[in-house]
Amino acid sequence: MSTLSYSACRPRSGQRPSTLLLALSTAMASSLCIAPALAGGHTITPEVSFTLQALYADMAAGERHISGFLPEGHAHGCNPEKLCLDHSEFGLAANLTPTLRASGSVIFVDAEDKGEVEELWLQQVGVLPGVSLKAGRFLSELGYANSQHPHARDFVGSSLMNSVLSGSHLIHDGVQMKWLAPTERFVEVNAELAKKSDNSPKAWSLGAHLGDDLGTSHAWRAGLTYLHAKPVNRAGHVDDSNEVEAHTTFTGTSKTWVADVLWKWAPDGNSKERHLKLQAEYFHRTQDGQLTCEDNRADNGACTGTTSAFRSKQSGGYAQAVYQFMPRWQVGVRYERLDSGTLDFSLPIELAAYKPSRHSVMLNFSPSEMSNLRLQYNRDTSMQGAPDDQWLLQYVQSFGAHGAHRF
């Protein structure tokens, strides 16, 4: 049985996690470090993992933004023309009892000088037939790709859709409930209630997914999710009419619908030789509230600290295909397009109507099930008047316990 030293479980000085995360981390650390034998002969065996994710990016220098959209959430990234750590991850998990599981992960990004807790949760299964409860910090089940860790994705970087919705991926501090129906066809309903998320202090969501096999070679899944959030002073930054950076805050209501569909093919269900994966997501979001542009006249800006009513109706999505044509080799294409839609406000900022887009082509080689070497080209026209030809080279290597990725 694996054990951890007790000293490794002591909190570092200066750390001040939230009460919920502190309680969860204390329970998890105590169980994993002491590793006692529990009733019924169950012992706790920690599952330790580390994923190294390195990236070299040849792209335009300077900060890029998606035109027509206010920045959302907190995105991680690397500087262009530099080899860096991009979302490397340390994970720790264990089954505390046959029906109670704990999991946590800390991510490291080269552009930042500290680790960040990405997930830390407890999950209880069997509360009722088919029902599971999760509490803590977790990736939201908004659509399909949001709940995937970056190393499990088929392309380098987040989609434009995920970038405008949450910065990279939506993370909740709260509770999640899932119900799996006792039917031959896959039917799952999930609900989330967040005290805090990446871009709102209060949010809730409700979603449903259906899926099934079609013969021995085909499988599909489709779903619809609704997210209701009430941002308070959500920070962003755009250029003002004088082309000076302006900092904004938004307070109001955000309502988002996300539809996702997935289809997989593998001859007779054998995906080791050849397989094809088609994936698409689409969102529609409305926002209504107050937008404030902080005073930047000291920098020759045009904002005076005034507040304006702000309303928007925006949409977009992506479609992608990944084909494994021989063992360990995959090719993929992805097309992304957004629509800034209707924007109604009266502030001196550059937020004009635009339809950002990006085309991507990738080639992936997997030396083993635990590693990937991926070359990707993007034709990025998401920033108005600044098209960019981007080359990305990514290496992913996982160590230790590593569970199977989701369907």
Please name the defining characteristics of this protein.
single chain; 407 residues; mainly beta; Porin; 16-stranded antiparallel β-barrel; 53% strand; globular; disordered N terminus
Structural commentary:
The chain is mostly beta strands and 407 residues long. The protein has one domain: Porin (Beta Barrel). 6% of the residues lie in helices and 53% in strands. The protein has two helices and 18 strands. The protein is globular.
Would you summarize the structure shown here?
The protein is mostly beta strands and 407 residues long.
User: What is the terminal separation in angstroms?
Assistant: 30 Å
- What's the CATH architecture name? Beta Barrel
- According to CATH, the homologous superfamily is Porin
Portion of residues in helices? under 10%
- Spans of at least 5 consecutive residues with low confidence: 1-37
Topology:
Layout: H1 19-34, E1 47-58, E2 83-85, E3 88-97, E4 100-108, E5 116-125, E6 131-139, H2 160-166, E7 171-180, E8 186-197, E9 203-214, E10 218-229, E11 234-239, E12 245-265, E13 275-293, E14 307-326, E15 329-344, E16 357-368, E17 371-380, E18 388-400
Antiparallel strand pairs: 1-2, 1-3, 1-18, 3-4, 4-5, 5-6, 6-7, 7-8, 8-9, 9-10, 10-12, 11-12, 12-13, 13-14, 14-15, 15-16, 16-17, 17-18
